[in-house]
Amino acid sequence: MLARLGGIVSALLGAAILYYGARLAIIGGSFFYVVMGIGLLIAGIQLVRQRQSGLSIYALTLAASFIWTLYEVGLDKWQWIPRGALIIFIGLLLSLPFVVSGLRDKPAKLWSFSLKNGPLALRTVVAVIAVMGLAVWFIDPMEKQGTLEKVATAGDAAVDPSGVAYPANDWIAYGGTNLGQRYSALKDIDTTNITGLKVAWEHHTGDLREGDAVDAKEYTFEATPIKVNGLLYFCTPHNIVQALEPETGKLAWSFDPQMKRDNQFQHQTCRGVSYDDSSAYVPPADTDPVKAQAFAAAVAECPRRIIASSVDARLYALNADTGALCTTFGDNGYVDLKAQMPNLQRATYQQTSAPLVTKDLIILGSAIADNYYENNPSGVIRAYDVRTGEIVWKFDAGKPDDTRPLQAGELYEPNSAVAWTQFAADEKLGLVYVPFGNKSPDQVGVFRSEEDQAYVDALAALDIATGRMVWKFQTSYHDLWDRDNPSQPVLLNLPHDGADVPAILIPTKIGNIWVLDRRDGKAIQPVRDMKVSTETDIPNEKLSPVQPMSALSFTPAPLTEADMWGTTPFDQIECRVTFRSNRYDGNSFTPPTTTGSIVWPGNIGVFNWGSVAVDPVNRWMIATPQYLPYVYKLFPRPEGELNKRMFGKPGEAGGESKPGNENLGGPYAVSISHMRSSLQVPCNTPPWGVRVGVNLADGTTAWKHRNGTVAGQKVAGIQFPIPFEMGMLAHGGTLTTAGGVAFTGAALDDIIRAYDMQTGKTLWQHKLPAGGQATPMTYRGKDGKQYVVIAAGGHGSLGTTAGDSVIAYRLD
Fold first, then answer.
1. Averaged over 637-647, what is the pLDDT?
2. Is 455 buried (19+), middle (13-18) or exposed (0-12) by CB count in 10 A?
3. Does the annotation count 482 as an active-site position?
4. For residue 121, what is the DSSP state?
5. Which of 29, 135, 263, 483 could bond to 654 as cystine, CB 3.0-4.6 Å?
6. Nearest 5°: CA angle at 53, between 52 and 57?
7. How far is CA 270 from CA 314, 345, 433, 774, in A?
8. Considering the entire predicted model, what is its pTM?
9. Which pLDDT value is given to residue 652?
10. What was the pLDDT predicted at 153?
């Protein structure tokens, strides 16, 4: 009875694999699943007939499948899963004595060696695979074991060569300082005592998502606090600014700007606030008397201030001591960033990143909703006086030579290139570094002029005082993939041509890390042009025949059909079919098409707003590259119906349905989907995220490890119970310290980890109450202890645990 039941299972499995395998083979994919399906089907038929030849055929099929697996993927145990886990498990059951005993022609001696002994053949194959599986469990061909060597002459530097003190007792800006290094000179917590790190306090902000009718789906707590003026400051997703006692987490004050809520916001987040100390400010002697009086009033009201912006596009200033609105700033405390903006539509113009504050100015860009409309507001960069809120200059990629503030009645340039992420600055050089992104629409460039193209995906170095461009460097050409420069640039000194030069790192979505001389934009790490296809089915689309690539790059190797993954043969075959059914040119620049194209890496990027962290003293970089493919497909609109919706359901909660990827007003809507199987498992083989340690002096990667476990992830809606360290997406940033310990909490398993910066080995971890899609920071409290702090509130789009925690750790 059991033999027949096993035969039915094998036959049904074989028939299903044969059916799906044939579909794959017909479109040019691997033929092996046809072979596997036939073998399992015949084995099942023979077992239904209660013949031991069924076990022999099953053993032969299993052995052939294992040999094919080794041929395709080698010793990567995670890639063995979809090819063999299910049939090995069934083979193990079929080889059990109470199944074999039901065979009509079972051998007299079950353990005698014979080619006709089906049970022994199957048991032997299962045993060999099991032993091999046990052996490869301790082998990971992806990993790189190595050590970052300390610079012998580094010492305990306290000041960067640019003249900026490395953060220690305080953390005065989003990236520690405006250099964006995410590095602290504190070393109380080090590799020898890190295991003693415990929770010091936990604060709940009280700011939680209020549901689909009120708040955006991508409701995220991505804030990095700053610690200065004896307090810890941060903002919540609704732009509530709170100040805590750094040693206890006790709330000192809270300010709610009453952000206008809208469930159509593409990103409902606030990544940070900034600080200004004008208590000793004296205006220059030649200052206009009226302005001098305004400065005096502003300083008297708010000698120290927190500068913040809101998702609904307001800039505001608060008294850093009390949390009171600085009414002498702007119009009764606020600057309306939507004033004189063209093409304003519902929820299209937002602010998500912390404003950059220099000695005298607030400099910020904007976050404009991707793919809602063909014509968008301006991506203008603006500088405001940090004390009065008066605009000082603008830089608009649509009119780059005119940096004067607008006059009454004028509008900013419509639909110009946008810079939405965090800026960096070298005040000694007098330059602010602006990472531009794309020009709308992201996936169609037929209407872009040469002037437009000049700033798409460019890093622009602007004069802090005037806003005039000093130099720029373009990181991709004719971007059709949403390859914004998403990361805060990182500034440090590096050796080059026998000298120590001021450098800048620009991490990108494609995985390039551009290493340039920040004085003039000249390359430090070599740059080459890679030839790419210019074939497209979009009329008048003029693709670039080359794309720039950096010598320092974490751009993934080209995808192949063998790279497709799944938890079973079925979803792996499905992913193989997806791979074969969409255009893919074998590189990262396959253009979007009306038939479907694979974009690898996808628009979430190898790097995103979390950027990278460095040890500027030893010239190391610590980063968490991530790898997910997407499928893009363009949908042409009928001529004369450019506002016709291609997706969505009118009448959804909250009013008119969200525009999504409609590009309303344009000739194409775009579908952007993560390349997943029906079980909601990524189609590319893990790791989906790694951590790496790089020697920036020569650009070599010393170590690479999988980053994060699959704990909490769902397969077909069922939460996976075992925390296998397969390497997960890490959407957030890293903190580095002089103690040789780096901290990251951004992986999807809700865990903050500390690891040895020299080797990448995990030294400590702690389960967070919610997703830690943020960047940790550190400081010294009045009690003399070093604290490490992270915001843990989850990420709506990524599905991590929601919450409202800010957590601090310290040694016992």
1. 89
2. buried
3. yes
4. H
5. 263
6. 125
7. 12, 21, 21, 11
8. 0.95
9. 45
10. 76
